[in-house]
Automatic annotation (TrEMBL):
Domain N-acetyltransferase, first and last residues per copy: 1-157
Keyword set includes Metal-binding: no
Swiss-Prot/TrEMBL keywords: Acyltransferase, Transferase
Organism per entry: Aquirhabdus parva
A GO molecular-function descriptor: acyltransferase activity, transferring groups other than amino-acyl groups
Keyword Metal-binding: no
Stated name of the protein: GNAT family N-acetyltransferase
Domain of life: Bacteria
InterPro entries reported in the protein's UniProt record: Acyl_CoA_acyltransferase, Bact_Acetyltransf, GNAT_dom
Pfam family membership, one: Acetyltransf_1
Length: 161
């Protein structure tokens, strides 16, 4: 697997963003979807990564994505956004690898807190976040309490990765 920066305007990025949007819309009403737009993913305080696998012809194929946005509004932390893996690649540890890369980026910038918002109808995502050390917390930044949202946080350490 190769994890590298992904241009939000690239065709493959647009394809995965569109599929992620459709998946989230199938689970939650629009007021409970807090997805980062392509415009937001292009901001200088955002790192948007793609995870690629090699197909039989040894060509890179986008399998998943994830982003982290550096926030300063209620503390200095990174907010994980847009973690998504195409269905055919789920269960292979790709999400965990993307999370590790995003957390490493934060540590490299000496940012020691990672936060995220996820939906309660995504038990696999919640299980992954708990397994890698995220704990529940209250809403942060501009998020409001939502019975369909779960807010989580992890204190990062350069020795934990």
């Amino acid at each position: 697997m190769i994890i590298k920066r992904l241009d939000p305007d690239a065709d493959e990025a647009q394809m995965i963003i569109t599929q992620s949007d459709a998946y989230m819309a199938s689970l939650y009403p629009s007021e409970s979807n807090h997805l980062a737009s392509t415009h937001a993913l292009k901001q200088s305080n955002v790192l948007f990564l793609g995870a690629y696998v090699l197909n039989p012809a040894q060509e890179e194929k986008l399998a998943g994505c994830g982003a982290v946005r550096i926030r300063m509004d209620d503390g200095h932390y990174g907010e994980i956004k847009r973690l998504f893996v195409f269905e055919e690649y789920r269960g292979l540890g790709i999400s965990k690898e993307i999370m590790c890369a995003l957390e490493s980026s934060l540590i490299d910038q000496e940012i020691w807190i990672a936060r995220l918002e996820t939906g309660v109808k995504q038990p696999e995502a919640i299980a992954l976040y708990q397994k890698i050390g995220y704990i529940e917390r209250g809403p942060f930044a501009s998020y409001l309490p939502d019975p369909l949202s779960l807010f989580m946080e992890k204190t990062l350490s350069p020795h934990a990765l």
